[in-house]
Specification:
Blueprint: H1 7-19, E1 23-26, H2 38-56, E2 62-65, H3 67-88, E3 93-99, H4 103-115, E4 120-123, H5 129-142, E5 146-152, H6 158-161, E6 165-166, E7 175-176, H7 177-187, E8 192-195, H8 200-210, E9 216-218, H9 228-234, E10 238-241, H10 243-246, H11 251-269
Parallel strand pairs: 1-2, 1-10, 2-3, 3-4, 4-5, 5-8, 8-9, 9-10
Antiparallel strand pairs: 6-7
Helix pairs in contact: 2-3, 2-11, 4-5, 7-8, 9-11
Bound molecules: 6-hydroxyuridine-5'-phosphate (BMP).
6-hydroxyuridine-5'-phosphate (BMP) is lined by residues 26, 28, 66, 96, 153-154, 194, 196, 219-224, 240-244.
Length: 270
């Protein structure tokens, strides 16, 4: 059952070291596509996304795409321009699809995202290993790609699922769901875990369980109220930042400031 980490992990480390940044840009630029003007609206959306990527490129270690950009642009359609642009500067691209389905569906989700050029996908460990995460991992390993698992999400309702106490199979002692997910991330050879920066204590606890074997990706900084320096002090490895960068007047400057703030926090930790 145990998997080895993929080359995606190495790719992330190389990108982060070369660019001296731990920022993963969540390129969640979003708009409606009015029926009467769909073509132009899609074109404008693509242009804005490409421009933001250009402005921020040198300050980020990777790019994360989510549904609000993928759905209007289309996977094998305009999204290809964004993936190509990222690839041309050796920027890893992560698809935040939160895959959460059964064997054959998960397998096809992974195949399409990897075939389309994504280097890693994000998945939900609630589905379990057999017929859930296993097919994603096997597709990823066949193609040298990565799988990142959710461990504790950044929103308030995360306490209800990730934060609940559960009785693991073959045990009489309840344990927090997120710590079980952290153990499974190590056992399954996940290439990362997502832990909300809004819960720095959870970052610390999860980091203790994974013993640094699985890099922690933290979203929830800025717009959702998480503090970037605190997240890194707690053990996060990469910060996922979206609106605080792309909604600012100068995304390039915001990305650079975010990078600098993280590097300062890391320096103080030494
Ligand atoms: P922002 O920095 O604008 O809040 O964006 C965060 C990004 O990370 C979004 O794409 C969101 O869907 C994602 N995300 C999150 O905010 N919390 C999680 O727990 C997991 C996520 O993937």
């Amino acid at each position: 059952m145990v998997n080895k980490p993929s080359s995606f992990r190495k790719m992330m480390e190389t990108s982060s070291l070369n660019r001296k940044t731990r920022v993963v840009l969540a390129l969640d630029i979003s708009t409606r596509l009015p029926k009467e003007n769909r073509g132009n609206a899609r074109g404008d959306l693509l242009e804005r996304a490409l421009f933001t990527l250009e402005q921020t490129n040198e300050h980020i270690a990777a790019l994360k795409i989510n549904h609000q950009l993928l759905l209007p642009l289309g996977l094998y359609d305009l999204m290809q321009e964004i993936i190509s642009k990222a690839k041309s500067s050796s920027l890893p691209v992560i698809m935040d699809c939160k895959a959460n389905d059964v064997e054959h569906t998960n397998r096809w989700i992974a195949r399409h995202y990897f075939d389309a050029g994504f280097d890693a996908i994000i998945a939900n460990p609630f589905v379990g290993w057999e017929g859930g995460i296993q097919p994603l991992m096997s597709e990823a390993r066949e193609q040298g790609k990565g799988v990142i698992l959710l461990a504790y999400m950044s929103h308030p309702g995360a306490t209800e699922g990730y934060g609940q106490q559960v009785l693991p199979t073959n045990s009489t002692k309840p344990q927090p769901q997120y710590l079980l997910f952290a153990q499974k991330a190590v056992k399954w050879g996940a290439d990362g875990v997502v832990v909300g920066a809004t819960y720095p204590d959870k970052i610390r606890e999860i980091n203790d369980v994974t013993e640094g074997k699985v890099p922690i990706y933290s979203p929830g900084i800025g717009a959702q109220g998480g503090d970037i320096s605190e997240a890194f002090r707690a053990g996060c490895k990469y910060a996922i930042v979206g609106r605080a960068i792309f909604e600012s007047e100068d995304p390039g400057k915001s990305a650079r400031d975010t990078k600098d703030k993280i590097n300062k926090a890391l320096k103080e930790l030494k």
